[in-house]
# Entry
Amino acid sequence: MSIQELDPAFVKRDAARKAGLPVEIARTKRLLIRETILEDVPKLYQLWQEPSVKRYVQPMQPTLEEEIAYMAAYIRHAYAFYDFGLWTVLEEDSGQVVGRIGLSVSEHLKEAVELGYLIGTAYQRKGYAKEAGQAVLHYAKEVLDLSEMHLLSDPENIASCKTAAAIGFTECEEIYIQHRKITHMIWEGNK
# Structure
Protein backbone atom coordinates (compact mmCIF):
# COMPACT_ATOMS: atom_id res chain seq x y z
CA MET A 1 0.00 0.00 0.00
CA SER A 2 1.38 3.39 -0.93
CA ILE A 3 0.94 6.68 0.93
CA GLN A 4 -1.46 7.78 -1.83
CA GLU A 5 -3.77 4.87 -0.98
CA LEU A 6 -4.08 5.85 2.68
CA ASP A 7 -7.17 7.68 3.89
CA PRO A 8 -6.22 11.40 3.98
CA ALA A 9 -8.04 11.85 7.31
CA PHE A 10 -6.01 9.00 8.84
CA VAL A 11 -2.78 10.53 7.55
CA LYS A 12 -3.78 13.86 9.15
CA ARG A 13 -4.55 12.17 12.49
CA ASP A 14 -1.27 10.26 12.34
CA ALA A 15 0.71 13.44 11.59
CA ALA A 16 -0.95 15.27 14.51
CA ARG A 17 -0.08 12.45 16.91
CA LYS A 18 3.52 12.33 15.70
CA ALA A 19 3.73 16.09 16.31
CA GLY A 20 2.44 15.58 19.87
CA LEU A 21 -0.92 17.26 19.16
CA PRO A 22 -4.22 15.80 20.34
CA VAL A 23 -6.61 14.75 17.58
CA GLU A 24 -10.00 16.44 17.68
CA ILE A 25 -12.67 13.75 17.63
CA ALA A 26 -15.81 15.88 17.54
CA ARG A 27 -17.33 19.27 18.27
CA THR A 28 -20.94 19.60 19.24
CA LYS A 29 -22.95 22.67 20.10
CA ARG A 30 -21.60 22.62 23.67
CA LEU A 31 -18.70 20.18 23.76
CA LEU A 32 -15.25 19.48 22.38
CA ILE A 33 -14.10 15.85 22.40
CA ARG A 34 -10.40 15.33 21.78
CA GLU A 35 -7.60 12.98 22.62
CA THR A 36 -6.45 13.35 26.19
CA ILE A 37 -3.37 15.42 26.98
CA LEU A 38 -1.38 15.10 30.20
CA GLU A 39 -2.73 18.44 31.48
CA ASP A 40 -6.23 16.84 31.53
CA VAL A 41 -5.24 14.00 33.82
CA PRO A 42 -5.43 15.78 37.23
CA LYS A 43 -8.97 17.02 36.46
CA LEU A 44 -10.06 13.60 35.15
CA TYR A 45 -8.57 11.99 38.26
CA GLN A 46 -10.49 14.47 40.42
CA LEU A 47 -13.76 13.67 38.58
CA TRP A 48 -13.11 9.96 39.03
CA GLN A 49 -12.74 10.44 42.82
CA GLU A 50 -16.39 11.50 43.13
CA PRO A 51 -18.21 8.62 44.89
CA SER A 52 -21.16 8.55 42.46
CA VAL A 53 -18.73 8.34 39.53
CA LYS A 54 -16.17 5.99 41.09
CA ARG A 55 -18.89 3.47 41.94
CA TYR A 56 -19.56 2.60 38.30
CA VAL A 57 -16.36 3.42 36.38
CA GLN A 58 -13.31 1.22 35.91
CA PRO A 59 -10.60 2.17 38.40
CA MET A 60 -7.80 4.55 37.54
CA GLN A 61 -4.30 4.07 38.95
CA PRO A 62 -3.94 4.23 42.78
CA THR A 63 -2.25 7.65 42.75
CA LEU A 64 -2.37 10.68 40.49
CA GLU A 65 1.34 10.30 39.74
CA GLU A 66 0.80 6.70 38.61
CA GLU A 67 -2.18 7.77 36.49
CA ILE A 68 -0.09 10.48 34.80
CA ALA A 69 2.64 7.92 34.01
CA TYR A 70 0.04 5.44 32.73
CA MET A 71 -1.62 8.08 30.53
CA ALA A 72 1.72 9.25 29.15
CA ALA A 73 2.30 5.71 27.82
CA TYR A 74 -1.33 5.41 26.72
CA ILE A 75 -1.15 8.66 24.72
CA ARG A 76 2.12 7.58 23.07
CA HIS A 77 0.92 4.11 22.08
CA ALA A 78 -2.84 3.43 22.24
CA TYR A 79 -4.14 6.22 20.00
CA ALA A 80 -1.69 5.42 17.22
CA PHE A 81 -2.14 1.65 17.47
CA TYR A 82 -5.96 1.52 17.58
CA ASP A 83 -6.79 4.94 16.06
CA PHE A 84 -9.22 5.33 18.97
CA GLY A 85 -9.20 5.31 22.75
CA LEU A 86 -10.46 7.23 25.78
CA TRP A 87 -10.89 10.93 25.07
CA THR A 88 -11.44 14.08 27.11
CA VAL A 89 -14.77 15.89 27.04
CA LEU A 90 -14.56 19.67 27.48
CA GLU A 91 -17.21 22.37 27.61
CA GLU A 92 -16.84 24.35 24.40
CA ASP A 93 -17.38 27.77 26.01
CA SER A 94 -15.34 27.42 29.20
CA GLY A 95 -12.73 24.86 28.11
CA GLN A 96 -13.43 23.05 31.40
CA VAL A 97 -12.83 19.27 31.51
CA VAL A 98 -16.24 17.75 32.26
CA GLY A 99 -15.57 14.08 31.63
CA ARG A 100 -14.22 11.30 29.50
CA ILE A 101 -15.67 9.24 26.68
CA GLY A 102 -14.19 6.79 24.29
CA LEU A 103 -13.83 3.44 22.65
CA SER A 104 -11.84 0.46 23.82
CA VAL A 105 -11.29 -3.11 22.81
CA SER A 106 -13.48 -5.14 25.15
CA GLU A 107 -11.81 -7.16 27.87
CA HIS A 108 -15.02 -9.15 28.40
CA LEU A 109 -16.62 -9.60 24.97
CA LYS A 110 -14.95 -11.42 22.09
CA GLU A 111 -13.88 -9.20 19.18
CA ALA A 112 -15.92 -6.24 20.38
CA VAL A 113 -15.36 -2.53 20.78
CA GLU A 114 -17.00 -0.87 23.77
CA LEU A 115 -18.20 2.67 24.34
CA GLY A 116 -17.57 4.03 27.81
CA TYR A 117 -18.20 7.43 29.38
CA LEU A 118 -18.11 9.37 32.60
CA ILE A 119 -19.34 12.87 33.26
CA GLY A 120 -18.40 14.62 36.51
CA THR A 121 -21.16 15.07 39.05
CA ALA A 122 -21.26 18.88 38.67
CA TYR A 123 -21.87 18.46 34.93
CA GLN A 124 -24.49 15.72 35.03
CA ARG A 125 -28.16 16.24 34.14
CA LYS A 126 -27.25 18.62 31.32
CA GLY A 127 -27.37 16.08 28.49
CA TYR A 128 -23.59 16.07 28.06
CA ALA A 129 -23.28 12.26 28.07
CA LYS A 130 -25.98 11.95 25.41
CA GLU A 131 -24.47 14.73 23.30
CA ALA A 132 -20.96 13.29 23.54
CA GLY A 133 -22.23 9.74 22.98
CA GLN A 134 -24.03 10.68 19.78
CA ALA A 135 -20.93 12.48 18.50
CA VAL A 136 -18.65 9.53 19.25
CA LEU A 137 -21.01 7.03 17.62
CA HIS A 138 -21.10 9.24 14.53
CA TYR A 139 -17.29 9.36 14.56
CA ALA A 140 -17.07 5.59 15.03
CA LYS A 141 -19.34 4.96 12.06
CA GLU A 142 -18.17 7.67 9.66
CA VAL A 143 -14.45 7.91 10.45
CA LEU A 144 -13.53 4.51 11.88
CA ASP A 145 -16.05 2.50 9.83
CA LEU A 146 -17.34 0.66 12.90
CA SER A 147 -20.89 -0.57 12.47
CA GLU A 148 -21.37 -2.15 15.89
CA MET A 149 -20.60 -0.91 19.37
CA HIS A 150 -21.08 -2.55 22.76
CA LEU A 151 -21.70 -1.04 26.17
CA LEU A 152 -21.47 -2.74 29.55
CA SER A 153 -23.24 -1.07 32.44
CA ASP A 154 -24.15 -1.87 36.00
CA PRO A 155 -27.96 -2.24 35.91
CA GLU A 156 -28.12 -0.05 39.03
CA ASN A 157 -26.57 2.80 37.05
CA ILE A 158 -29.97 3.86 35.74
CA ALA A 159 -28.74 7.18 34.31
CA SER A 160 -26.10 5.42 32.20
CA CYS A 161 -28.58 2.82 30.95
CA LYS A 162 -31.05 5.58 30.01
CA THR A 163 -28.33 7.53 28.22
CA ALA A 164 -27.26 4.43 26.29
CA ALA A 165 -30.86 3.80 25.20
CA ALA A 166 -31.27 7.46 24.21
CA ILE A 167 -28.29 7.25 21.84
CA GLY A 168 -29.50 4.06 20.20
CA PHE A 169 -28.21 1.13 22.25
CA THR A 170 -30.56 -1.77 22.86
CA GLU A 171 -30.25 -4.23 25.71
CA CYS A 172 -29.32 -7.70 24.52
CA GLU A 173 -28.49 -9.68 27.66
CA GLU A 174 -27.46 -9.72 31.28
CA ILE A 175 -23.98 -11.14 31.83
CA TYR A 176 -21.83 -11.74 34.89
CA ILE A 177 -18.36 -10.27 35.23
CA GLN A 178 -16.48 -11.14 38.41
CA HIS A 179 -19.76 -12.26 40.02
CA ARG A 180 -21.47 -8.92 39.23
CA LYS A 181 -24.54 -8.70 37.04
CA ILE A 182 -23.90 -6.39 34.07
CA THR A 183 -26.25 -5.15 31.35
CA HIS A 184 -24.81 -5.74 27.88
CA MET A 185 -26.16 -3.34 25.26
CA ILE A 186 -25.45 -3.11 21.53
CA TRP A 187 -25.58 -0.27 19.01
CA GLU A 188 -25.78 -1.12 15.34
CA GLY A 189 -24.87 1.70 13.01
CA ASN A 190 -26.38 0.10 9.93
CA LYS A 191 -29.94 0.35 11.22
Remarks:
- The two ends are 32 Å apart (CA to CA).
